[in-house]
Design brief:
Blueprint lengths: L6 E6 L2 E6 L4 E5 L2 H18 L2 H7 L15
Length: 73
C-alpha cells in the first residue's frame, strides 16, 4: 500500500532539510534529491515501527501549502 505525503524542502546552510508536514517528520541531505530520499526512508521506518495509534495521532487531516505576502516593517 502506498500513501501520498507532502515534502517541504528548503536550504539550510550547506545542505537541505526535508519536512513531511502531515507527520512532522524531518530529514536532511546534501542535495534536494538526497534530502527527499532520506525523508522517504525516515517515513518508511516510521510506518514500519509506529503503532497504529501513533500514526493516527500524528497524521494531520489536511495540509495546505500556500504563499502569502506580508509587509516588512
Amino acid at each position: 500500500m502506498n500513501k501520498q505525503l507532502t515534502a517541504i524542502i528548503q536550504r539550510e546552510g550547506d545542505g537541505f532539510v526535508a519536512l513531511c508536514a502531515e507527520l512532522d517528520i524531518a530529514s536532511q541531505g546534501d542535495t534536494v534529491e538526497s534530502a527527499r530520499e532520506n525523508l522517504r526512508e525516515a517515513l518508511e521506518l516510521f510506518f514500519e515501527t509506529a503503532s497504529p495509534a501513533e500514526v493516527q495521532r500524528r497524521m494531520g487531516e489536511e495540509v495546505f501549502i500556500t504563499q502569502l505576502e506580508v509587509s516588512l516593517g
